[in-house]
């Protein structure tokens, strides 16, 4: 009599597993094995020690939720292999093509040209890292970890190591592009979210420069080689606007609302419209309007590079050793009440 052949049980591509924690709880996670690669998805669900019936019931509910997620992942995996999901087809797009689309998208949606340039530089480094033939589907956790290692060992043109803030900027470009790819259903998730935060490239903390009341007094008392720059800088000190927003400010944006003067601002960075109240001290630094029309700029400022030259010279002539930029004007360590109360006599 022939022996019955044992049925071969197919291995599950996704298994629910547990990790013992120091507090006695068990963390639930999915062990996903596919195409010779193993990844883990921690569910942020936890089983607690069974001390009473309530804990037993709670654990049963947690297990049901975890198994539901597991079932959903198995369906997504099967659909992806069968070519049913939208992302499975679109993820064949080349990473470099998507990065270029992302760069154009950010430029069209009002992002600064500087960020557009940074994305283009990040693309060049991605090409150096793995070439141009990488598909979106191939961008996984291992790829992103490898890019981190590449950036940490990359050199500048002068042979010196790349600055950490530069590394962080390029890695941020990739992260943001992948987030948009998830939103557009090109990939199912951003693999960078699977990387431990401690392993990612972080922007180093910097000491923020600011001016004191005494230093502002010195600037007010000193002559400046370009009066519009001085006026715009001190205006920024008392209202907190960015240089880009001040450059775009027209006379039509200065509005009298009852007894309160306001500046209508479409924030360059966020594209939001604000009606910023202007203190008497801020108003003092607005130049005479004369015959200017509503569309004329309030501050007739020189080009950005020369503005920095003007600020540097002005600060040196005032006996200030700090690096003075429009960014420092926005970070003066004074509350609004101090600006309007304690400083209102500074330019008198």
Describe what this molecule looks like in 3D.
There is one protein chain. By secondary structure, the protein is of the alpha+beta class. The chain has three domains: 14-84; 90-199, DNA polymerase, domain 1; 213-341, hpI Integrase, Chain A (Orthogonal Bundle), CATH 1.10.443. The chain has helices at 53-82, 86-90, 95-108, 113-130, 141-153, 164-183, 213-221, 227-239, 243-248, 280-284, 304-317, 326-329, 336-341; strands spanning 14-20, 26-34, 37-47, 254-257, 260-266, 273-277. The protein has a three-stranded antiparallel β-sheet, covered by helices on one side. A three-stranded antiparallel β-sheet has the order 4-5-6, with no helix packed on it. Helix 3 runs antiparallel to helix 4 and helix 3 packs across helix 6 (164-183).
Name given to the CATH architecture of the largest domain: Orthogonal Bundle
Number of helices: 13
Q: What's the CATH topology name of the largest domain?
A: hpI Integrase, Chain A
Shape: elongated
Give a quick account of the main beta sheet: strands, pairing sense, barrel closure: 3 strands, antiparallel
Strand-and-helix sequence, N→C? EEEHHHHHHHHHEEEHHHH
Question: How widely separated are the two ends?
Answer: 112 Å
Q: In terms of structural class, how would the helical and strand content be classed? A: alpha+beta
Radius of gyration: 29 Å
Order of strands across the main sheet: 1-2-3
For the record, the CATH class of the largest domain is Mainly Alpha
Can you describe this structure in just a few lines?
The chain has helices at 53-82, 86-90, 95-108, 113-130, 141-153, 164-183, 213-221, 227-239, 243-248, 280-284, 304-317, 326-329, 336-341; strands at residues 14-20, 26-34, 37-47, 254-257, 260-266, 273-277. With 348 residues, the chain is α+β, with helices and mostly antiparallel strands. The strands form 2 sheets. Strands 1-2-3 form a 3-stranded antiparallel beta sheet, with helices on one face.
């Amino acid at each position: 009599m022939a022996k019955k052949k044992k049925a071969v049980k197919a291995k599950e591509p996704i298994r629910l597993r547990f990790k013992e924690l120091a507090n006695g709880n068990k963390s639930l996670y999915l062990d996903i094995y596919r195409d010779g690669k193993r990844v883990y998805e921690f569910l942020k669900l936890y089983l607690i020690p069974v001390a009473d019936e309530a804990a037993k019931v709670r654990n049963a509910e947690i297990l049901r939720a975890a198994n539901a997620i597991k079932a959903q992942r198995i369906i997504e995996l099967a659909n992806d292999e069968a070519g049913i999901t939208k992302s499975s087809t679109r993820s064949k797009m080349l990473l470099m093509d998507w990065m270029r689309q992302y760069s154009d998208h950010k430029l069209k949606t009002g992002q600064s040209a500087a960020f557009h340039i940074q994305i283009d530089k990040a693309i060049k480094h991605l090409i150096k890292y793995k070439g141009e033939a990488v598909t979106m589907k191939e961008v996984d956790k291992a790829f992103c970890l490898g890019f981190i290692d590449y950036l940490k060992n990359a050199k500048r043109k002068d042979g010196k190591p790349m600055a950490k803030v530069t590394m962080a900027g390029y890695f941020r470009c990739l992260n943001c592009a992948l987030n948009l790819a998830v939103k557009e259903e090109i990939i199912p998730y951003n693999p960078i979210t699977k990387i431990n935060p401690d392993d990612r490239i972080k922007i180093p903390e910097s000491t923020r420069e600011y001016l004191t009341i005494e230093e502002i007094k010195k600037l007010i008392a000193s002559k400046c080689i370009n009066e519009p720059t001085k006026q715009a800088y001190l205006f920024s000190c008392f209202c907190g606007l960015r240089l880009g927003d001040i450059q775009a400010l027209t006379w039509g944006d200065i509005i009298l609302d009852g007894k309160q003067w306001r500046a209508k601002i479409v924030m360059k960075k966020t594209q939001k419209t604000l009606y910023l109240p202007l203190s008497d001290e801020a108003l003092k630094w607005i130049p005479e309007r004369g015959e200017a029309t509503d569309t004329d700029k309030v501050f007739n400022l020189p080009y950005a590079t020369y503005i920095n030259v003007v600020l540097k010279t002005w600060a040196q002539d005032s006996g200030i050793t700090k690096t003075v930029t429009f960014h420092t004007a926005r970070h003066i360590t004074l509350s609004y009440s101090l600006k309007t109360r304690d400083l209102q006599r500074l330019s008198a």
